Structure formats: C-alpha cells, structure tokens
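Dear colleagues,

I hope this message finds you well. In preparation for our joint manuscript, I am sending the DUF1870 family protein (Bifidobacterium asteroides) sequence together with its predicted structure, so that both groups work from identical material. I would be grateful if you could confirm receipt.
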Amino acid sequence: MTPAEFKSTRESLHLTVKWLASHMRVRRQSVQRWENGRFPIPDSVEAAMHDLEVLTQTSIDKGVQDHEDILSVPMQDQGPEDDMPPAWHRMVAKQIAGQTGARIQYEEHDEQA
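The corresponding structure tokens are as follows:
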C-alpha cells in the first residue's frame, strides 16, 4: 500500500487521522507520517485498513439486503463505546440509501441533546 493509497482509503472511509490513530493504538504523527511517506506503512496496518474496508462493504451489503425504509445514524460521537465514528455510519447509510431509496435520519437520542 502506497502512502497515497493509505490516505485515500482513510478518507474514503470517512475516518479522521485522530480516530485511526486511536484505533491503531499509535500517535497521530505516525498516521501522518505513513500518509506523507516519511515512514513505511507496517504490514499490520495495511491489513487493518483492508479489514476496515471489508467491514464497510459488509455493512453496506447487509443494509441493502435488509432494505429498511429509514436508516438511523448518529449526529455526533456517543462516547468511547462507539466502534466506528459517526461520519463512517453516515457514509454507510448514504451508500445504502443510494441503492435502496431509504431515508436517513438522526438517532432519536441525538435530537434530544
């Protein structure tokens, strides 16, 4: 994986440098150095990025298969228990909606905040 492929993958998954660094258990500077080519991208990181791409596609495929009329997404981070960031959930919902015609709305507890 080249630095450009790494950054393109991160951006296409709607993941921030901060989130990815936390997920990979590294400093933000490490992610930035991988993206600008200053450090080689470890094989384990490349594999983790592939896993995130697979998770994303699997989530989209499942959402299309489930074909719900309304897709609920978070407006903002709910806390450390969140596995993926809100922007990722919204991107997945947008992909599903594009294939099924579903509507996207914010989760109810977001609206009350």
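For the figure legend, we might mention the following. The CA atoms of residues 69 and 102 lie 5 Å apart. The beta strands are 70-73, 103-106.

With kind regards,
E.M.
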